[in-house]
């Protein structure tokens, strides 16, 4: 057997149902599916039982240990030459596995990954979040599946690797967040050939509201510093941009407040004029950036509502990541504390 899908699950039976249904529609149908229930309070056993006979499906249940260790558990029980790691909140198009197979036939490699996009069925909020995570104007396009990248670091929502090499590398670490980037770094450090498969994309729901999205990106910012402490050469200029954006927004907000106070309480006209200038200087870059996001997202989605939500998603993503990054930098690099993460107990609530 050439391919094994490994899917860790935590309290998401409805999403697993959608994912398994999409796997029944693959044009290339020779594969197995390994579902690992990670100590869920709402298990998906009954959902998986409905696909017996439709898929070569193997269901396992274990105590909660986090997604990384659950993937390792599944890979240990997989039989395929390649294991394909998917998050439970994705849906794969019918040609997904064929695209993977075509790429491997064209040019073999030890590891690979693919991009993601939003489905028409997603809510406007999910589409806005998807835009913010893939747009050039928010992430520089580093997660949007661009071929020009010198290195592509697969993410756990859509990642494949030869099973024997996965086991040689020890699989995912015990990091609660950033464990997929950690694994990708170790793939490159082992000298393995890793490629982007641009046509092997998935629909990725990500978070369903902005509160959950903030928690996700906040932990991503923390994870970046945790990774830096393990691999100092992994921190690139692009990883600093959300932090710079966050500090810039805070500075402009303080400047606006200072200008407003000057307008309201200064007696001298020159001071009031200076206050107006400060307020204008603070608002213009924020308004221009917001209009850029609004226009680009609305153009892509053909929806003004999604464009407006994308403005909120962009600020949530950049400032959530930036705040997590700054907190982790202070605690780990300045105060010398150990690795940590936030929102661990209620991350999905």
UniProtKB/TrEMBL annotation:
Gene Ontology molecular function: transferase activity
Listed transmembrane segments: 237-268, 274-294, 306-330
Superkingdom of origin: Bacteria
UniProt xrefs under SUPFAM superfamilies: Nucleotide-diphospho-sugar transferases
Keywords: Membrane, Transferase, Transmembrane, Transmembrane helix
Cleaved signal peptide residues: none
Listed Pfam families: Glycos_transf_2
Start and end residues of each Glycosyltransferase 2-like domain: 4-169
PANTHER family, sorted: GLYCOSYLTRANSFERASE, GLYCOSYLTRANSFERASE 2-LIKE DOMAIN-CONTAINING PROTEIN
Name of the protein: Glycosyltransferase
């Amino acid at each position: 057997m050439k391919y094994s899908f490994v899917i860790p699950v935590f309290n998401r039976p409805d999403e697993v149902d959608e994912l398994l249904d999409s796997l029944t529609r693959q044009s290339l149908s020779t594969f197995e599916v390994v579902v690992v229930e990670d100590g869920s309070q709402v298990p998906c056993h009954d959902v998986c039982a409905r696909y017996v006979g439709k898929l070569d499906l193997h269901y396992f249940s274990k105590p909660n240990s986090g997604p990384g260790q659950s993937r390792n558990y599944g890979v240990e029980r997989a039989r395929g030459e390649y294991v394909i790691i998917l998050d439970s909140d994705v849906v794969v198009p019918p040609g997904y596995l064929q695209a993977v197979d075509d790429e491997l036939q064209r040019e073999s490699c030890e590891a690979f990954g693919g991009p993601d996009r939003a489905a028409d069925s997603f809510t406007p909020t999910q589409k806005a979040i998807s835009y913010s995570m893939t747009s050039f104007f928010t992430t520089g396009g580093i997660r949007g599946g661009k071929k020009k990248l010198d290195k592509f670091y697969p993410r756990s929502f859509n990642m494949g690797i030869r099973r024997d090499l996965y086991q040689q590398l020890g699989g995912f670490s015990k990091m609660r967040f950033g464990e997929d980037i950690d694994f990708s770094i170790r793939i490159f450090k082992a000298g393995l050939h890793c490629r982007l498969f641009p046509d092997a994309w998935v629909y990725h729901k990500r978070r369903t509201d902005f509160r959950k999205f903030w928690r996700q990106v906040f932990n991503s910012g923390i994870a970046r510093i945790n990774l830096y402490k393990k691999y100092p050469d992994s921190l690139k200029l692009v990883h600093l941009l959300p932090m710079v954006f966050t500090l810039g927004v805070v500075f402009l907000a303080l400047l606006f407040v200072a200008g407003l106070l000057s307008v309201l309480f200064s007696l001298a006209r020159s001071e009031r004029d200076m206050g107006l200038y400060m307020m204008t200087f603070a608002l213009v870059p924020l308004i221009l950036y917001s209009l850029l996001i609004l226009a680009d997202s609305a153009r892509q989605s053909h929806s003004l509502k999604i464009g407006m939500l994308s403005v909120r998603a962009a600020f949530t993503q950049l400032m959530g990541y930036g705040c997590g990054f700054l907190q982790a930098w202070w605690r780990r690099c300045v105060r010398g504390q150990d690795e940590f993460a936030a929102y661990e107990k209620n991350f999905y609530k």
